[in-house]
Amino acid sequence: MSDIEILKRLYKEYTSKYLKKIIIAVFFTVLLAVSTSSVAYLLDPAIKQLFIEQKHELIYIIPGLIVLAFAIKGSSLYLAKILMIGVSEEVRKDVQIDMFDSLIRADTKVIDGKHSGKFISNLTNDVDMITNLISTVILNLFKDSLTLIGLLSVMFYQNWKLSLIAIIMIPLASFAAKSLGKRMGKVVGQQMIKAGVLNTYLMDLFKNHKLTKVFQKEEYEKRRAAEFISSLKETAKKIAIIFMRASPIMEFLTGIMIAILIFFSAKLVAKGELEVSNFFSFLAAMMLAYQPVRSLASLNIAIQQGLAGAKSVLPIIDIVPEVKDVPNSKELSVEKCQITFANVQFNYDKNEQQILNSVNLDIPGEKMTALVGLSGAGKSTILNLIPRFYNINDGDIKIDNQSIYDCSLRSLRKNISLVSQDTTLFDDTIKNNILYANLDASENEVKEAAKFSFADEFIEKLPNKYETIIGENGIRLSGGEKQRLSIARAILKKSPIILLDEATSSLDAETENKIQKAITFLTKGRTTVVIAHRLSTILNASKIYVIQKGTVIGQGKHDDLLKSSEVYLNFYEKQIRKS
Predict the structure, then answer these.
(1) What digits encode the pLDDT tens for the residues 92-133?
(2) How far from 522 is each of 411, 454, 484, CA to CA, in Å?
(3) How far is CA 552 from CA 215, 236, 398, 563, in A?
């Protein structure tokens, strides 16, 4: 997408809806331009009539008009900036909401493929550049252009010959700004990448702070942080230097112009073609024009920064999910919730090796089915395919003989609860973490879910009970307590299908016993697919599938598999020896 196309899109999708406010802001910039030009123009009668002709009757009028001009100038600038700040913040909100909406709906593989720190950098730093493009560039473009036109009018009114000489400075300044703008765009791109890397590093560091302490890597991490920060500092320094290069260039050009103008003005005064009062008015207009010319010269730099931000943000907004509803998708109608995998083929990326090879599963409804196998066999992948976190490459998955690919995602996922070994909780209250499954649930339903998950035992001992803030991912809770909250959340959803990545092997016997009871309550009468880490939890499963390298190599009940599957027998014997 070209720079012009990006600017058109930003206007069409984000700026155009605030056009009325922008027009009002432009009106105030017109007043600003008129008042600024008036200040320069009033110097002519001030010098001529007050100092040369000494008309005392004007001694209050002309200074009063100058004060009024400055008052209008200041008020107009203030009101124009207030309006444009409001517009830019509205645009910031709209862009961030669109980005968030795109990310929250994006495929799981998109989110997994990029560190969350970089997404946060896109949402903050890159959007800031777009906001600046709107608030600063649009305002300055009108403000400085109109002011420059007004001041040039005063200059031509006073003396057209001197004005033509002064105009030479404008194309020279524009040429310098264009050159600096290209360089700025390149460096800003580097800064955005480095800011994303720093965000990523900091998130990892704070998340793993205990690891840093136990391995005594504080000094090592300090050196790494210093490297990231120093690199970002150097890039920021480059940007500041490039931005400031416009200042000496403009100062030099202005100095040359003033020198040339004084030279020619002296000759014109000597010839009687220019009065002293005209010269001072002209000089004031030219000096006042210096600021808008410099600002306009720097405008290309700010535009390049905004474009760089847009080039990072817009592709995120444009993410099109692969996992989405097909046209005329149906509502999933559940009865017993029997799940069938028919010749399912799957890999996460077309260039990667196959994860699942012609997997056929017949998961009975309202009963427990277990998946057993070594790490990396494909068990978690099977679990993730049922709620359509990913699309399969070939084959089909059905629930009660309905292809999940013909059903709406909403109707599919409302019937599924997931309890993972990597318990996910929010930095919020215990109550809100449980309520996440059903925001309309009553307080009694929340407490009932906590009771059946045995979470109420530790909740009632906390000072703030259900209103206790549990910290980032439940950092203030033990592993067993977090799992019980996760189960309580699933109980509250009351879905007919339970996906359970069971993880009780690292818990003490008492906690494990409570969680097993909670799981028994959660899964009773529901279609349950469980990844078994401990065979003791699935001995009574209706069906057990043995998975190896993405293929089903055995199925049946526990006793049958002990006889028919060597892999299952070895798995069982190892656990017996461990216990």
Answers:
(1) 899 999 988 888 888 888 887 777 777 887 888 888 888 888
(2) 21, 12, 11
(3) 41, 56, 18, 16
